[in-house]
Amino acid sequence: MSLDYSKYSNLSPFELKDTLISLASSKADRVMLNAGRGNPNFLATLPRGAFFLLGQFALTEARLSLSYLAPGLGGTVRIDGIEARFDRFLADHQGQEEATLLGSALSYVRDQMGLPADTFLLEMVEGILGCYYPTPPRMLTLSEKIVGQYVLREMVGGELPLDSTDFFATEGGTAAMAYIFNSLKQNGLVCKGDKVAIGMPIFSPYIEIPQLEEYGLEVVAIQADPALDWQYPESELEKLRDPAIKIFFCVNPSNPPSVKMNDASLEKVAAIVQERPDLMILTDDVYGTFADGFRSLYAVCPRNTILVYSFSKYFGATGWRLGVIGMHKDNVLDTKLAQLPADTKQALDKRYASLTTDVAAVKFIDRLVADSRAVALNHTAGLSTPQQVQMVLFSLFALIDQEDRYKATLKSVIRRREAALYRELGVKPSEDANAVDYYTLIDLEDTCRALHGADFAAWMLKQAGTGEILFRIADETGIVLLPGSGFGGVRPAARASLANLNEFQYAAIGRALRKMVDEYYQQFSSKNA
């Protein structure tokens, strides 16, 4: 080995990622294979096509007013007759699949959901034109109902009525996280020094944000067990009974193990909540749409749970920045706000005074909206309306797909990629009904034991930590994998996304990893000959 990889041992997570990429891309005659990023290389084209076609209709609607004044000038869209004009527009584009989707979307909204077609079209047309501030700022009225129906169908399987939940449209799951952490702090629901539980392993910002000076939270790890197919042992979930723990943060299905919580774990948490009705929960369910028969913690603990969902992975829309926060209309956070000490309430009355004279009546989800724009800019808050329109079209595309053809295709794609990687590596992937397979964790010890026995596996753990192996892999093969330890994992492992490369490239990764393991085995054999 030409490099001393030990010099990279103290890098920050961002520096580590950048160094791995730099090493992997350092040779001009080699293609870098970056399996460290979760950005998918697939995307939903049909709802995007519908978006662009809807934009053409919206422009014709805007041109019906004021266009006499100057070329390129339009005016306010008229609701009278808009449904008939839309039908004629679709007839002019008959045979185009995006026009068919728009027609089906209107039919679903009108005939299945019972929403007024002309009001829906007006909201979509004005929304895609982006000619008005988002009103209401939390989410456009019918858009909230449609997106809400999609999210609740996918996350809770119809266990909760549509009107049970308020939704706030955000700039992706990233903004949702930032807004929630900030508003919890601003409203005194989580204070510096408080205990928070985090389901590990987890998307690393959930570990890093509590450690920031402005939060200063004490983290209690709820550690999933690889020996239990990455489920949380009962003994770990029992930690949630500690009354000092204010909130439980989890990603479900998990990142990076990519496993959904089983029913036993869900019911265990629900039972604890029955005994601890003050416990707050945040569940980030971005990968739930890749799971079979997914049920969110929001399904079993709706009153205690903040639900975060992002459209980024399932629809290949990371650049669109589309996410929602869902909260039950009767929730424990609002109850906690009412129980705050008098001095805290007085400070909050001052903070939100520009919104209303009755601050006590402002729900937590509406405080999220205000806090997202430093309160004073609440009147211009909200996700941009074209983004909300694309979110609606993604939702309707999925709702109309009664046979789940799109979903089945994505599941098949990522599972074939997993099979190709492990086939070339020479070990079998775990067979688990709760596995989602968006990511895979390649366990160093298990892999080495399966390939060359327990003695070699023990030697590898002592000889080369995962960090060294990952830097060597990047340097010698051009492959980027991320260490499981960066996500709160306790066993040496490498995370590979199964979403952002093609099948033959995952096969190449498997072969390269097998070659490197075999080279280490030759060193082991020569020293023990």
UniProtKB/TrEMBL annotation:
The UniProt record lists the keyword Transcription regulation: no
Required co-factors: pyridoxal 5'-phosphate
CDD domains in alphabetical order: AAT_like
Enzyme class: transferase
EC number: 2.6.1.-
One of the GO BP terms on file: aspartate metabolic process
Keywords annotated in UniProt: Aminotransferase, Pyridoxal phosphate, Transferase
Domain Aminotransferase class I/classII large: 172-504
Reaction it catalyzes: L-aspartate + 2-oxoglutarate = oxaloacetate + L-glutamate
Example GO molecular function: L-aspartate:2-oxoglutarate aminotransferase activity
Pfam families the record matches: Aminotran_1_2
Database matches in NCBIfam families: asp_4_decarbox, PRK09275.1
PANTHER family hit by this protein: ASPARTATE AMINOTRANSFERASE
Family: Belongs to the class-I pyridoxal-phosphate-dependent aminotransferase family.
Protein name in UniProt: Aminotransferase
